[in-house]
User: Fold this.
Amino acid sequence: MKKLKFGLSAIGLAVGMAATGISLPVVAGGPSLSEKDFEEANLMYFQRCAGCHGVLRKGATGKNLEPKNMLKKGQARLEKIISYGTEGGMNNFDDIFTKDQISKIATYIQMDPPVPPEMSLDQMKKLTKQFVPLKDYPTKPLHGRNWENFFVVIERDAGKAAIVDGDTKEVIDHIDTGYAVHVIKGTEHHKKDHAKDVGRFWYTIGRDGKVNKIDLWQKPGKMLVAETQMAYDARDIAVSGDGKYVIAGGYWPAHFVIMDAETLEPLKVVSTRGYNTKGEFINEARVAAIYTAPNESAFIVAVKETGKMLQVDYSDLDNLTITAIESAEFLHDGFFDPSGRYFQIAANASNKMVVVDTKDAKLEQMIDVDKLPHPGPGANWIDEECGPVGGTTHLGVGLVSVWGNDPINHPDQAWKLCYEVETDGAGVFIRTHEKSDYVWADQLKHPEPEVQQSVQVFDKKTREIVKTIRVTEDEGKAALHMEFNQDGTEVWVSVWNRADAKNPTGEIVVYDAKTLKEKTRIKGLTTPTGKFNVFNRANHKT
Amino acid sequence: MKKLKFGLSAIGLAVGMAATGISLPVVAGGPSLSEKDFEEANLMYFQRCAGCHGVLRKGATGKNLEPKNMLKKGQARLEKIISYGTEGGMNNFDDIFTKDQISKIATYIQMDPPVPPEMSLDQMKKLTKQFVPLKDYPTKPLHGRNWENFFVVIERDAGKAAIVDGDTKEVIDHIDTGYAVHVIKGTEHHKKDHAKDVGRFWYTIGRDGKVNKIDLWQKPGKMLVAETQMAYDARDIAVSGDGKYVIAGGYWPAHFVIMDAETLEPLKVVSTRGYNTKGEFINEARVAAIYTAPNESAFIVAVKETGKMLQVDYSDLDNLTITAIESAEFLHDGFFDPSGRYFQIAANASNKMVVVDTKDAKLEQMIDVDKLPHPGPGANWIDEECGPVGGTTHLGVGLVSVWGNDPINHPDQAWKLCYEVETDGAGVFIRTHEKSDYVWADQLKHPEPEVQQSVQVFDKKTREIVKTIRVTEDEGKAALHMEFNQDGTEVWVSVWNRADAKNPTGEIVVYDAKTLKEKTRIKGLTTPTGKFNVFNRANHKT
Ligand code: DHE
Ligand code: DHE
Ligand code: HEC
Ligand code: HEC
Assistant:
């Protein structure tokens, strides 16, 4: 049988993947590609499609794209779908890919999906590097800045993380990270465990599975202190309450890895492959959200395709205890309630918010919401009628759903829908702050630029939208992801220069949290997406 | 690509396997087989070789048999090895297979191993049958026999379990089970949980993954009350302390399944695929020994290839808590110490006995022993010098190793080798009884008939072999596996009619436990291997 490399080596994306050969998977009677074209299509698929449809193409957010279904559609229909997208949530790609490329991808998905290689702990260890030895770590900040109001900002397509001084609004560093960092998390305050210098160290996870450690006490230019790689494809990361461990989850291979937070040395790898709630075996059981439970010595690991929330006790890695909490598919993104006991996570394909009780390590409740809930960092606030509530945006509909989340003092409202707010367009991120009267929602999923470039703000009291803010009017740019500053007086919104992704033409727009008026624009950023305020994230201001 | 069925359907072995096609896996430049011959070789391999070498041929007890290694050896050398075996533990197969069959298997192992299909919970549910409805279960024994001294006896190649009355020595039933039942377990006394009618219900697990439920209170002919199938290839089973659940482990797929002990309805399936102690991903991570911890509401599941002992809390299946205790490869067979707290299991390829503390769910110790330890049901007794001890036979050497197993009152001797007894040949099973002065060891692994047909008995006081008992002299028969009767006055040894496996020419030889003299022979059994005395197994007399 002819062997073909799983060629992600093309952009040096996947160290080690080139080593293992795979077979050229032509389905009998189906179309085929040359090895070179197959490799190109494979890479494009991995970078642009696999996140929604899966490497093995079994489907998740996107539909199943196995040959048995694709052959029925045929080349022409597939090219059309990929070029122009569909009503049901499939993006258009005619702005990113050439006609020729789209034709290759359309052929590629009519062939059997190649299975990418595994990654062993040894491989990860070989990819671990120290840029600054532990003994040279400073004992106090080497700059005079208020680092607790720093924002760590993803510059997606530049493969960088920018550090922005929240007081002065200066971009003080652009740190080289892996390809398309997806999430960045730092050490946080914890009820039982105590990390040193909370908020000082930040850890990035890239789509390529690279993990970078950032030390905010270092001088700009020196902040990148260590690196490793724990998968070929990954999305989320977290730091243990004691600051000793970092955990990151793989989309491929389907596993999570616990690393030494000092050196990033990988210590433990645990497979998440297993059975879904229907009892079917899932090889591509990807790790979506990962958090540290604020009150327990445990990580919370959401396994997307199996609908299982894993509560992983990190107090003894050699005798690792995991509770697998059955919920619903496909688990994606979540956030804790204000007490830190309950984790609220979207099971998007089930149109549910799943609530896990981390005190008893069990399912607390499942709340029916609208199409494809997606809270991003999430939002908790107090509603006059329902008491403490949580809220989410939806990928599938312009709507914010709000539910009670205080079972102790408001048992009648707890885990029930309190109210809904209609927005102009489907969104990805919701955000608020305890000092703010407002809740902010973006509309990233809406196809029309006017809506996609606007965020909407509603009043916690009246539950009415009070302002629609057009964040940018530039073609090819989108508005997304809100983050408050340290004292809750400002809201920062990203302008993602999607079309001009190679240049620093993205920006962050800063709004006054009270007047909702624009204060300033921070320029010189390349494709800024997520951003993380040190103080708010370390103190669970969600 | 041509599709070929994973054809275990030939003997109806694997219901459901025929449904999924696999590709005919010819290695470039390597030899190949017709589809028909491939299917035949595949079946022979699955039945006779996979247990030691693995379905995916990565190696375990036997070596790696992947094409990259096999192609180097070539057809002629491979045929020789398969025909005549090797010194290092590879059996000869010239007595079981024809020259032509051996040639096909030799070619087969030079081709890529086909991956058998998965099995979903739904498939298992469809294979679940009630022969006697729950409402018709008797409320007391329907026969006047002393059922607590029954022996449940495996008739391996007949696909039956015989029920032998230990008082009268009558074979009162031959129950139809799956193909080659491997282990049978019943409800047991438990420190925390309490099952009804302890010792009444017995559960068989076959090599084909079939599970049968036997009710010893029924009249002969009516004892088989339910059936299911939980894998295509399996070895061990256990019943929860409260008698509510049955758990069985798969060799393929690599998972364990928890069933309702009343109906055998499969409730939960958990994959055991994961990383070994070196951090390499193992797809074929087979479940070997499964037990219920006598003092905890937990199952103990040994995952052979990953070297992980899983302690599975069965008190909440929806929020299933598992502690994965890292130990050594390849975990195989084990037994509890007399306190019921410590599980002692062979990690055979590491030449270690692994000890797990089920109270704290952690690794207690690893004891270095000789080549390939294999205790079977195991043996615990009191040594004058070392205090409470455990012992094991070895597959790789004629030796019984004995270690201290009482860390509370004999901490200096605990988990250290106390002494060794040389036997004439490598064996598989060791056994004793608290009322007996002797320890019995078989020598099943020795190639010479005189030794293989003899068991050896040593004195607990003198530590010396006091008797070598030739159990049979018939050609083609082997002696194996000892079991005491209810009051400890008799020892039963199986005579396995290997060569004449289709006929009831096997027997059980009963010895006086004190005088070591033969008392009687129970005839009319087809290939008896393991046997399980109701009282001793229910009361942890190991
Ligand atoms: C698992 C996961 C998390 C962690 C959730 C949590 O911590 O609760 C997450 C969080 C995030 C966060 C962190 C939010 C926060 O404030 O904590 C951001 C900024 C983000 C920006 C994007 N995400 Fe994300 N994201 C995925 C996965 C995830 N994203 C996908 O699988 C998906 C749908 C498709 C893909 O191929 O990646 C996807 C698309 C996107 C985007 O298109 C965004 C907008 C830009 C990008 O980087 O591609 N995701
Ligand atoms: C996992 C496992 C157990 C459970 C151990 C425990 O409970 O602690 C077990 C127990 C057993 C027990 C239960 C012992 C007891 O008293 O509890 C018996 C009788 C037994 C007869 C055999 N076993 Fe067994 N056995 C395997 C697996 C296992 N056997 C194999 O993988 C192997 C090596 C090769 C194979 O392909 O099956 C194998 C060969 C054999 C035999 O050749 C024996 C002698 C006859 C047969 O059935 O094939 N095994
Ligand atoms: C943001 C998520 C997302 C991404 C990224 C994505 N898709 Fe989709 N895709 C979807 C969704 C959701 C659907 C279902 C749309 C519908 O039902 O209208 C879909 C549908 C499809 C379909 C039609 C399937 C059918 O049976 O109707 C094809 C083909 C397809 N996608 C191919 C691709 C390819 C190729 C890529 C990458 C170049 C890609 N998709 C990227 C979400 C995505
Ligand atoms: C009881 C366990 C067991 C069974 C069953 C078994 N083998 Fe083996 N096999 C071994 C062991 C152990 C070795 C290593 C022997 C040695 O090193 O001398 C081995 C070695 C081999 C080798 C030589 C590998 C090498 O690289 O040297 C081949 C080929 C082989 N086995 C094929 C088979 C086939 C085919 C079957 C079934 C028809 C089979 N085995 C059944 C245990 C087993």
Residues B 48-49, 51-53, 61-63, 65, 69, 78, 81-82, 86-91, 93, 105, 109 surround heme C (ligand 4) (CB under 6 Å). Chain B is about 10% helix and 40% strand. Chain B touches chain A through 40 residues (CB under 8 Å). Helices of chain B lie at 35-48, 50-53, 67-84, 99-108, 121-126, 449-452, 534-538.
